Amino acid sequence: MSLVLDPAAQDLLFREARTANAFTDEPVTDEQMQAIYDLVKYGPTAFNQTPLRITLVRSPEARERLVQHMAEGNQPKTASAPLVAILAADNEFHEELPALFPAFPQAKDVFFAERPVRENSALLNAALQAAYFIVGVRAAGLAAGPMTGFDAEGVRKEFLDDDHTPLMIVNIGNPGENASYPRAPRLAYDEVVTTV
Fold it and tell me: How far apart, in whole angstroms, are the C-alpha atoms of residue 63 and residue 66?
């Protein structure tokens, strides 16, 4: 059985999509970012929680502040990308649950009253949302360069607060010349999937 999604869309989102390390100087607009969010907000999470928070770094001053927290090899990429997003988990996401999960508004207090429980859930579900975000960037015809090579505590202090945990930095734009490394191998189906 083949996939229902058009092969061109499959290529755009997965087969031909690559992590970009270099970008053109063509800007990424607020309208593009709004369209990306309006698509990926429908990705599933536990209890429909929405812990992902996105900080778009546009101004030269903010970019300079961010670059100083990036690993050395990631600094030039972040300095030159048309747009950079800080993706973070909101550890107080449970405050929104009565509106986001009306089928069981008590979930806020029944399951997420304790901070360590919220932090674990926020990390897992924000990571899911971050993956949807990357696919959404690709769906917009742009390339994403997600990175975890940065000083998370420095980024948190510089851009966020104690209730937010930085997950990754994503450079966004149209891929430039020699933007990606050669495609690396992937595990085969029978190396990953077990039927019991």
Answer: 5
Which residue, 110, 87, 85, 107, is CA-closest to 96? Answer: 107
- Cα–Cα distances (Å) from 72 to 8, 78, 172, 196, in that order, read 36, 10, 19, 46
How would you classify the pairing of strands 83-90 and 143-147? unpaired
CB-based burial label for 174 (10 Å; 0-12, 13-18, 19+): middle
pLDDT above 90 (res 1):
no
Lowest-confidence range among 11-15, 36-40, 130-134?
A: 11-15
Q: Which residue's structure tokens are 């499959």?
A: 10
Q: Residue 2: pLDDT band by 50, 70, 90 thresholds?
A: confident
Q: Are 174 and 143 in contact (CB under 8 A)?
A: yes
Task: Give which of 175, 129, 162 is closest to 21, Cα–Cα.
Answer: 175
